[in-house]
Description:
Blueprint: E1 6-7, E2 9-12, H1 28-41, E3 45-49, H2 55-67, E4 72-78, H3 81-91, E5 97-104, H4 107-114, H5 118-133, E6 139-144, H6 151-164, E7 168-173, H7 180-193, E8 200-205, H8 212-222, E9 226-229, H9 243-252, H10 254-257, E10 259-260, H11 268-279, H12 300-308, H13 336-345, H14 352-368, H15 374-384, E11 392-400, E12 408-415, E13 418-425, H16 429-441, E14 446-455, E15 464-472, E16 475-483, H17 486-503
Parallel strand pairs: 1-10, 2-3, 2-9, 3-4, 4-5, 5-6, 6-7, 7-8, 8-9
Antiparallel strand pairs: 11-12, 12-13, 14-15, 15-16
Helix pairs in contact: 1-2, 1-11, 2-3, 5-6, 6-7, 7-8, 11-15, 14-15, 16-17
Amino acid sequence: MNQSPRRIYVFDTTLRDGEQSPGCTMNLKDKLLVAEHLEALRVDVIEAGFAAASRGDFESVSAIARQVKHASVASLCRALTKDIDAAWEAVQGAAHPRIHTFIATSPIHMEYKLKMAPERVYEQAIAMVQYARNKCADVEFSLEDASRSERPFIYRMVEGVIRAGARTVNIPDTVGYSIPSEYAQLIADIRAHVDLGDARLAVHCHNDLGLAVANTLAAVAAGADQVECTLNGIGERAGNAALEEIAMALATRREAFGATTNIDTSKIYAASRCVVQVTGSRVQANKAIVGENAFAHESGIHQHGVLANPLTYEIMTPESVGLPRNQMVLGKHSGRHAFESRLNELGFNLNKEQIDDLFAKFKNLADRKKTVGDTDIEALVGDVRVPIEEQFKLLQFNVLASNAVTPMSTVRLSVKGKTVEQVAAGDGPINASFAAINKMCGMKNLILESFTINAATSGADALGSVDVRVRNNDRVARGHGSSTDVIEASLLAYVQALNVLCSE
Length: 504
């Protein structure tokens, strides 16, 4: 008789560890949108943030806790009473709240970072798990830098925090140092030396050596119950284990692992694109599962094989991750029904107001381009996914650019309903246009921290996609714009970022 596959729980930390990736800061509306996609994916736990880090983080965790209906919502916190208090206050409104507390256990961390003896670390961990357990029924404890910790101390810590009330114990490879064989052995050794009872054993791997997913899957094979990961693998330094790669590995090779998740893999593509849109952090073309080349076949031999039988070169289908195989091409004569149908097929569930706005943008684009493909639509969606109040609206611009004269730009905006126009010079037409906008926005300390331009589609009439990150004092906002004119796309992105700054 075949044994039923083990259930592996998926703990997503895109909104906490993922957001710590340089340039991936999200505002509250961004985070709520990502949380919506995580619910659609059916992840088991959403780590919403670090409530004690700042007032903004606290408010984000609280809002996500109130919105999410099915997944557990966790807040990370240090093993300190004030952090645990903040975490509980933030998540207590969740349908399924979780407190996730941690302390470092490796010799190097205890000596140089904590400046605490191992016995003191142990006592602190036990006391804080008990403190958290008195507030919340679901407590997770992480041994930071566990992969570089000493085995006897790991066993003692795991056993102690479970006795103190932790329902999940996490064994992180915090600095991405492990290799699969030794990480699997660590998980197996913990299972052999510690009575876990009903507690779950979790793993959290970083990608410093490019082994985060491999280590995670090795741990699953060795008996881990929970995997901690992020969409697109975003995260500190080289990132985290990628949710989509873990989920599809377990789905495609279920017989090899004897394990399965509750993930709805057909929602992966839409969730991945959402993270790209709200963070501006693109995935490389050859990225497994969600890269644009993941299901592309250029070799003639490969193309022939796939046409004869997709299984010759495709071990999973595009549809299994939510990417429709049929490429519907839309044009200026396409109606709203066809457009809305394609949005749904691509996994974008938008409200009527968003669709109205997007359809108008689509019609405008279709007048400029002969055909509008899926990548065009995805680029347009980035402009309307997170609705914000428009204090500034681009009305018109005129630029003078030459290698013989100083570039000049005249920009006309609607500012709180009033038409305003300014002229400025700059190093180029985009720089001059931004300078003109700066004169009208009333923000004195604006800094353009990043500017990225990409061709969202191919061809001479390609849609340009621009992402900017703008700082005003201690506040940072992202903006996205798309147009067949890269100057217009740049201005739309910059104006959107200013609107986000005003709305927060």
